[in-house]
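> forwarded from #structure-qc
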């Protein structure tokens, strides 16, 4: 595989009868891109692409998606292989450093992350400023942003070592922060990390354990949770990752950038869809009601959408949904849980996949469709789902943020616009309007 993109053909854009040539760049795999960086300087014209549907905002070596084929690769490795054979710590190393670690490298990395799991004690008082019914994502936005006030020795973004320390801190502290957000809503004491446990086992103990009792990590739950973390670790230039990159492009510190990513992830069209998908499945309740919801999703006058269905990039099965669909059955079987929501989900999927509306628009289940069923079986309330997504995605965010800062082509992100408002006009005093 070629490391650097090679220069290929030229594209000619004719504006006002004059042709302007632009280089077409070829990546390792995937669509070529027309490099239009000089377009405005050459022609006085911008491109118009709301939602960046046809715009590559950066070059990256981290993740590749082929939405038509339903392929997702991290550093070249297919997601199903990673979910099946790897661990979240190993995938984190891979995303951050570009290669799978040796056994010694993995040990060192896991130890480093483990050593950063504790939070500054004063942050506990920060939690107490929130209402008990605060959404965990509201708490996460606040607490992660506040980390910048506590870890000044890792906010110099020009120093690669400080960038890596900040990245390790963020990966390590997110489980502690998310678990504390959960404990706070319950009114239970915060649990300190236990460094003898795995990354995922430690998170489960901090979430479901109490100081008064010994907590045994269930290997079935630990493995399912680790798989969910792997499946959510990175997803190329999605909305929250682009938000992290955009925030970081101004030189903002990494903790502030990740807080921005968390805010973006919260939306129901993005990470918030896992919560919305399970709520929808519960609302549907039983398979007989599915046609009613399918009809609503197809009705142009009804804002309702099938949550957990459709994706900006995948016009085929989201490969993560395939892994999770299988995992949902395995986890529920192993835990001996019978959840009618899983039957509703399976039936809904089958009906939608045969329906012309969904077929024509290439709407398939996405990662959020089955993750909620598993998380609910493990014992998480729906309000925690997006917080778990944020926890796992932090790895992708910091990997992408590091890549951006090291990219010599990096500039502050500053989109342009097509202005359609009033042209210049004179101020009219209020008594004359
Ligand atoms: N249910 C019903 N109709 C849908 C759905 C859906 N879930 N998703 C898309 N459509 C329809 C739209 O109404 C639109 O129809 P039209 O062309 O007749 O106007 C068409 O399909 C294309 O939809 P867009 O919103 O233009 O597609 P876009 O790529 O912008 O949106 C998105 C992708 C936001 C994910 C969308 O499919 C959606 O809202 N899905 C439900 C929310 C969801 O599950 N989000 C999680 C995404 S994965 C993630 O972030 C981890």
């Amino acid at each position: 595989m070629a490391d650097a993109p090679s220069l290929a053909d030229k594209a000619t854009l004719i504006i006002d009868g004059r042709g302007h040539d632009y280089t077409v760049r070829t990546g390792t795999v995937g669509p070529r891109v027309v490099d239009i960086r000089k377009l405005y300087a050459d022609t006085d014209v911008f491109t118009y692409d709301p939602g960046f549907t046809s715009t590559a905002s950066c070059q990256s070596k981290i993740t590749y998606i082929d939405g038509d084929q339903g392929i997702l690769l991290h550093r070249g490795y297919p997601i199903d292989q990673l979910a099946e054979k790897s661990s979240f710590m190993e995938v984190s190393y891979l995303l951050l450093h570009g290669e799978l670690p040796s056994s010694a490298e993995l040990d060192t990395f896991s130890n480093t992350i483990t050593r950063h799991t504790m939070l500054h004690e004063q942050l506990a008082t920060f939690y107490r400023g929130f209402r008990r019914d605060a959404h965990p994502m509201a708490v996460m936005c606040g607490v992660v942003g506040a980390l910048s006030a506590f870890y000044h020795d890792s906010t110099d973004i020009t120093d690669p070592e400080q960038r890596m320390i900040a990245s390790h801190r963020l990966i390590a502290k997110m489980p502690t922060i998310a678990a504390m957000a959960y404990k706070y809503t319950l009114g239970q004491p915060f649990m300190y990390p236990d460094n003898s446990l795995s990354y995922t086992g430690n998170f489960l103990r901090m979430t479901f354990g109490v100081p008064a009792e010994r907590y045994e990590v269930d290997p079935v739950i630990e493995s399912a949770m680790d798989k969910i973390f792997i499946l959510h670790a990175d997803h190329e230039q999605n909305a929250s990752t682009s938000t992290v990159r955009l925030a970081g492009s101004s030189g903002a510190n990494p903790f502030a950038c990740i807080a921005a990513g968390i805010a973006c992830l919260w939306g129901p069209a993005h990470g918030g869809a896992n919560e919305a998908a399970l709520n929808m499945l519960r609302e549907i309740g039983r398979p007989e009601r599915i046609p009613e919801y399918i009809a609503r999703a197809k009705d142009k006058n009804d804002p309702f959408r099938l949550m957990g269905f459709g994706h900006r990039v995948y016009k085929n099965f989201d490969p993560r949904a395939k892994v999770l669909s299988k995992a949902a059955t395995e986890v529920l079987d192993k835990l001996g849980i019978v959840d009618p929501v899983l039957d509703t989900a399976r039936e809904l999927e089958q009906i939608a996949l045969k329906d012309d509306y969904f077929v024509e628009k290439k709407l398939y289940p996405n990662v959020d469709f089955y993750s909620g069923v598993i998380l609910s079986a493990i014992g998480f309330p729906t309000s925690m789902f997006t917080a778990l997504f944020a926890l796992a995605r932090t790895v992708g965010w910091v990997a992408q943020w590091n890549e951006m800062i090291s990219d010599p082509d990096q500039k502050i992100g500053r989109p342009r616009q097509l202005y359609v408002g009033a042209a210049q006009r004179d101020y009219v005093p209020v008594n004359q309007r």
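QC bot note: The mean pLDDT is 94. Residues 269-271, 273, 297, 305-312, 361, 363, 366-368 surround acetyl coenzyme *A (CB under 6 Å).
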